[in-house]
Structure formats: structure tokens, C-alpha cells
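Dear H.,

Thanks for agreeing to be a second pair of eyes. The structure we're designing against is below in C-alpha cell form, covering all 338 positions.
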């Protein structure tokens, strides 16, 4: 989930390497011509009242959808792709270090965000783990104005009005953001999250709980909260300093909020399998720390470790290669056994 980017060690063999400074979107991103609305801010007919307005795209069809489509899962009353588009890279939340986060945020212009979302559509990715921060409202408005369609699973941060989100964006689901949930859990105030879920339920949408801590999902399940789904980070990056010292035999790293242990994923996957409700696993690639040679295995491990009713959130940063296409092809290959 989203937290301020902090400094950390470099990983030159990472998934999100950006050594090729001149690279642009890969060939799969065809680019969409756009024009300004005649009035500059005329209402878009396919946006709900109160939503941010955006310029319309040039007339003409988008690139046809690929024959490779991400398989779907039943979620509420609809079918959504088992790989949901993640939001973090769009706005520089790299969970890596400040330099990489800055490069990511600068590269992801409004044009590129919309192009990547359209590319995701072409591969059957029809759900987006949206967050109402930064430039996200305007980018989403533009994507919809250009004919893009995705179901929104919104992670609701602190001090964001859930009722406003439902009225303006018509999401499929709301989930309490993992950072908010984890802080409440560590402060002994998980009941505040339960009360938030009750209020979200009254808004007529699906309700979920996000977390980086496996024990949170286990506790919510044990207490039988009225929620529809969970989102679990497979790496527990919310251990306290004392917990890290225990894990690391008294040592503590320079970046305690973004330590990724290889032994963590099995713990979260076990909790996900034991739940009775749909779950979404996220950070399955350790926020880009998995080297290229291990990417397909990380996807395979994820899908072999979660339930058939479960999915994954995956963000992309296709500055060097078309990660949307690559990820879609991997997921299609794994789930269709082709």
C-alpha cells in the first residue's frame, strides 16, 4: 500500500531497472491521440456527477485487444481479471528509495498513465486498485473519457470521505488501506477499522480490509467481521523496530519499513488460503526486488498458493519493456496451462 518513499539500498538486477535512460514505452503501448474539449471543462457524459472532468480523446478505435486475455474470477456480481492493475508506480510510491520513486513519478505523466491503463484493458485487465491521492482523480477521469473501462477497488486512506468516493466514482468495492489498518492494529485500535467497515457497508459497495500483517486477516476472520474480501501484502513490511531486531538477531537495517524477507510470503499465503472469502495478494514481486529470471516463478508461486477465487494486485513501470504484456502473458500461461 502507499507510504512515503524512504531511502534504501540499490538493487541493480531488479525488476524495475531503469538504466536505459532513453527508453520509452515498449512497442505494445501504441499511444492514443488526445485533444482538449472545446470548452476545456465540458462535462463528460460517461462520468458520474461531481467527478473530475477530462479532455476527450480523438475519434477512432483503440488498438484491438490481444488474443492473450487474463483469466477472470467472480467478485461480487461481476467477473474481474485475476490480475488487478496496481496503483503505486503511477505516483512514485516505489517502496524502494527516494531516487527511484522520483524517477517513477516524473516518468509517469498523465499520457503514460492513461496509455498503460488502456494497454491493460487490451489484455483483459478490467479492475484497478485505485487510490484517491495525487493526480489520480484527473487521470481516472481522462481514462474514462477516452473510453477506458475498469472496475474500481478503491483503497481508502485516512481522511478520505468514503461516501464521496462512492458518489463520484461508483466503485465496485472499498478497502481500508493497509497502512491505516496496520497502524490501528499496532496501536490496539483495530475496532476503529471495524467501525469504518460498518459505515462502508451502508454505502452499498463491497467492503474489504487491506494489511501487510498476516495476523490481522486471521483476527478479522476469527471475529467474523462483516466484510467481503481481504488484500494481503505477501511481505510483512510493517514489523516494529523491536520485531525486526528479533527477526534479525538484534540488527536493524537502514530502511526498516521496506525490508523484504524471503520467508514472509508463505506466511501470508497460508492465511489467504485459510480464509473463507476472496483475497488479493500484493507485492508478489517484492516491489521490484525479484530479478527478471525469477518473475514467472513468483507469479506461479502466487497462484499456486492462493485460492481459485483469489486474485493479485500488480503495479507496472514499463519504462524499459512492456511489463503489462509480459505479466499478462505469464498469468495467462499459468492459469490456462498453455
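And this is the sequence the design step returned. I haven't edited it by hand at all.
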Amino acid at each position: 500500500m502507499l507510504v512515503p518513499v524512504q531511502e534504501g539500498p540499490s538493487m541493480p538486477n531488479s525488476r524495475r531497472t531503469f538504466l536505459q535512460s532513453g527508453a520509452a514505452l515498449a512497442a505494445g503501448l501504441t499511444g492514443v491521440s488526445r485533444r482538449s474539449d472545446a470548452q476545456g471543462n465540458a462535462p463528460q457524459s460517461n462520468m458520474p456527477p461531481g467527478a473530475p472532468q477530462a479532455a476527450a480523446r480523438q475519434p477512432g478505435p483503440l488498438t484491438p485487444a490481444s488474443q492473450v486475455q487474463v483469466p477472470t474470477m467472480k467478485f461480487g456480481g461481476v467477473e474481474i481479471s485475476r490480475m488487478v492493475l496496481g496503483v503505486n508506480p503511477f505516483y512514485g510510491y516505489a517502496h524502494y528509495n527516494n531516487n527511484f520513486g522520483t524517477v517513477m513519478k516524473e516518468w509517469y505523466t498523465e499520457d503514460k498513465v492513461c496509455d498503460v491503463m488502456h494497454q491493460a484493458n487490451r489484455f483483459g485487465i478490467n479492475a484497478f486498485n485505485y487510490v484517491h491521492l495525487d493526480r489520480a482523480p484527473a487521470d481516472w477521469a481522462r481514462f474514462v473519457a477516452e473510453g477506458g473501462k475498469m472496475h474500481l477497488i478503491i483503497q481508502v486512506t485516512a481522511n478520505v470521505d468514503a461516501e464521496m468516493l462512492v458518489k463520484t466514482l461508483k466503485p465496485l468495492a472499498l478497502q481500508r488501506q493497509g497502512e491505516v489498518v496496520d497502524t490501528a492494529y499496532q496501536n490496539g485500535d483495530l475496532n476503529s477499522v471495524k467501525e469504518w467497515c460498518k459505515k462502508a457497508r451502508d454505502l452499498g459497495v463491497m467492503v474489504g480490509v487491506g494489511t501487510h500483517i498476516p495476523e490481522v486477516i486471521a483476527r478479522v476472520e476469527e471475529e467474523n467481521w462483516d466484510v467481503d474480501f481481504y488484500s494481503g501484502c505477501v511481505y510483512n513490511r510493517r514489523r516494529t523496530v523491536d520485531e525486526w531486531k528479533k527477526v534479525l538477531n538484534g540488527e536493524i537495517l537502514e530502511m526498516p519499513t521496506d525490508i523484504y524477507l524471503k520467508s514472509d510470503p508463505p506466511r501470508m499465503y497460508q492465511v489467504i488460503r485459510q480464509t473463507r472469502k476472496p483475497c488479493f495478494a500484493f507485492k508478489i514481486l517484492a516491489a521490484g526486488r525479484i530479478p527478471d529470471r525469477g518473475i514467472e516463478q513468483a507469479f506461479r508461486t502466487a497462484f499456486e498458493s492462493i485460492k481459485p477465487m483469489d486474485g493479485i494486485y500488480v503495479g507496472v513501470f514499463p519504462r524499459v519493456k512492456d511489463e503489462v504484456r509480459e505479466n499478462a502473458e505469464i498469468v495467462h500461461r499459468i492459469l490456462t496451462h498453455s
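Two observations from my side: The mean pLDDT is 85. Residues 72-336 form a domain with the TIM Barrel fold (CATH 3.20.20.100).

Warmly,
E.
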